[in-house]
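cron nightly-structures :: item 1 of 1
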Amino acid sequence: MSAQATKKKATQGANSEKDIITETSIKVGKALARTSVQAEKSTRKVKKMAEELLESVGEKVSRKKNTAAAKKNASSSREIALAPASGLSVEGHLGFLAGDLYQSLKAKGDTPASELVNALKKRGHTEAMIYAAMGWLAREGQVTFTPDGKNLTLR
């Protein structure tokens, strides 16, 4: 083989290798582009799901706030203010409830017993404790019931 033929064959081999490298580079570039597009689509999808989730949670929180505000507004005109009575003995708890009942009656006057019971039950007190506190006040001569037994009044 002549030097020129060897050089031509070497050039063809180099061109062939360059073609293979070029083709491989193109394939890798296309694969990366596809992966990038897929990653972008996935990112958009996850972002949309996160936004929907946040919106859903925001709506739930908003509804809860609106419900709580509506309940507060509905009961605020006849609300009984109570401080927490945790850690008290039964007698202390009854005294605390009796004091709250007395203050409520002093502020509002003649009040249906059922209304007082319902207001206190909403705050976690049991009916038995509420009626015991009413009895405490009645025994001390602080309150009396109307003749029909439905309303509580101060003496």
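cron nightly-structures :: done
The chain has a mean pLDDT of 75.
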